[in-house]
Amino acid sequence: xxxxxxxxxxxxxxxxxxxxxxxxxxxxxxxxxxxxxxxxxxxxxxxxxxxxxxxxxxxxxxxxxxxxxxxxxxxxxxxxxxxxxxxxxxxxxxxxxxxxxxxxxxxxxxxxxxxxxxxxxxxxxxxxxxxxxxxxxxxxxxxxxxxxxxxxxxxxxxxxxxxxxxxxxxxxxxxxxxxxxxxxxxxxxxxxxxxxxxxxxxxxxxxxxxxxxxxxxxxxxxxxxxxxxxxxxxxxxxxxxxxxxxxxxxxxxxxxxxxxxxxxxxxxxxxxxxxxxxxxxxxxxxxxxxxxxxxxxxxxxxxxxxxxxxxxxxxxxxxxxxxxxxxxxxxxxxxxxxxxxxxx
Length: 344
Prior knowledge:
eight-stranded mixed sheet, alpha/beta
């Protein structure tokens, strides 16, 4: 990614720190690997720090496999910017505005405040990476992922996000009152494969009062949907007054043996971004990984650029939903491993 005033690379800690100083009241998204591990830094006054750090679907070093290696195994082709949680935590400490004043006791502090896991599959729910996170960090995970994580007996707090309702989600004890986490799933999607986890927050509260969200007049949301979700299902967000600051949705369509569509891809993403009125669309879960096992024989991947997708949709391709020709209607930001973007 070509760096702009809103983008930088976190491999250079001084640049990271400078960027955070330049946007004290705006969130930052960091693409930790080339696939679907993300870090959301929400500005706040939390534990005396300036950022509340949410880690999504952490998978760093090593392979991931589901069932057994003979069934499905994959490795990163592009190295994550950090190889361990300890490396990430050290970088977060170094990038904090107060980092240079950290005392000896604070050097052991964990700067990851919340972990979010969207699916139980090990490219999202990677045990070897997750067990590096201190046990005291709360985890919010979807049903099957939460059950799997609890079976490890590592974390002290593992919970599931409620499904979306028009009224405000109740305040939780394990996260700040100005942050709400909930889930939206496509109708009839029994396994919740095509779904989204939504983080709704109010920076005006997180920076000053630490109060709970009382209304949605100032709240913003990051919508995380690594496998994609129908735009129809996201229509509830603007209807409720929720402003989607960023949509994380993949570009590649992935099908299993020309039958089961796994990742919905760019044509669906265009609709999703438009329907939820996203300000930014950041592609995710598109790393073409090295793989093996039985499942790899049946996977079919169609890769799109945004230009290709818009051209394809304007030529009347069938996508299951109407996609109008022209611009997608939001800013498209493609981040590589280690790239970060200020959500202005």
